[in-house]
């Protein structure tokens, strides 16, 4: 991906006049979010990943957590108001969200799902996450992010 190429996430942010920074890197050099953070020379606690889940009710939820952490499914279920929650299967991700594994962004999914971000974001000026393509990240403040996608915060990560 070229540095001047825009993703749908960036176009959506631009259309809403939301301020952000974008980062591009060679995706063959980073297979995990932690490796992406290292390539970008960013603290992995500031770099987040978007995970898509399904609750017992059949509703889908998006959870955004630091790349070095894992989603606590019990905490996620509690935050979503579900009895049980599980990760969706990888093959369901693209048809459901429009994104591939490793390039999933909380912004610009095919449908707007209830989104919850780990409370660790509250201590940061900005967070970084996928711009909708592998090898491309965006950085923005929570105030700016809220203009693009409504979200709540909860303790989610282990």
Structural notes for this entry:
With 158 residues, this protein is an alpha/beta fold. 24% of the residues lie in helices and 25% in strands. The longest helix is centred in the N-terminal third of the chain and has 8 residues, at 8-15. The N and C termini lie far apart (32 Å). The mean pLDDT is 92.
**CA-CA gap between termini:** 32 Å
| Most strands sheet | 5 strands, mixed
Structural classification: alpha/beta
Number of strands: 8
Count of discrete alpha- or pi-helical segments spanning 4 or more residues: 5
> Which blocks of ≥5 consecutive residues have pLDDT under 50?
none
What order do the helices and strands follow? HEHEEHEHEEEHE
For the residues shown, what is the average pLDDT?
A: 92
Q: What's a quick, concise take on this entry?
A:
The chain is of the alpha/beta class and 158 residues long. The chain has helices at residues 8-15, 33-39, 73-80, 90-97, 142-148; strands at residues 21-24, 48-55, 60-66, 85-87, 114-118, 127-130, 136-140, 152-154.
Topology:
Layout: H1 8-15, E1 21-24, H2 33-39, E2 48-55, E3 60-66, H3 73-80, E4 85-87, H4 90-97, E5 114-118, E6 127-130, E7 136-140, H5 142-148, E8 152-154
Parallel strand pairs: 3-5, 5-8
Antiparallel strand pairs: 1-7, 2-3, 2-4, 6-7
């Amino acid at each position: 991906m070229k540095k001047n190429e825009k993703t749908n996430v960036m176009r959506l942010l631009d259309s809403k006049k939301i301020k952000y920074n974008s980062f591009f890197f060679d995706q063959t050099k980073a297979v995990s979010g932690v490796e992406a953070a290292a390539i970008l020379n960013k603290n992995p606690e500031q770099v987040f990943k978007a995970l898509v889940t399904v609750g017992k009710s059949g509703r889908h939820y998006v959870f955004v957590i630091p790349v070095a952490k894992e989603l606590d499914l019990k905490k996620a279920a509690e935050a979503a108001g579900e009895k049980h929650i599980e990760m969706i299967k990888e093959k369901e991700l693209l048809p459901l969200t429009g994104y591939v594994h490793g390039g999933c962004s909380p912004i610009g999914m095919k449908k707007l799902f209830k989104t919850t971000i780990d409370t660790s974001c509250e201590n940061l000026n900005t967070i970084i996450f996928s711009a909708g393509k592998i090898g491309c990240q965006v950085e923005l403040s929570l105030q700016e992010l809220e203009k693009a996608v409504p979200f709540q915060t909860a303790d989610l990560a282990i």
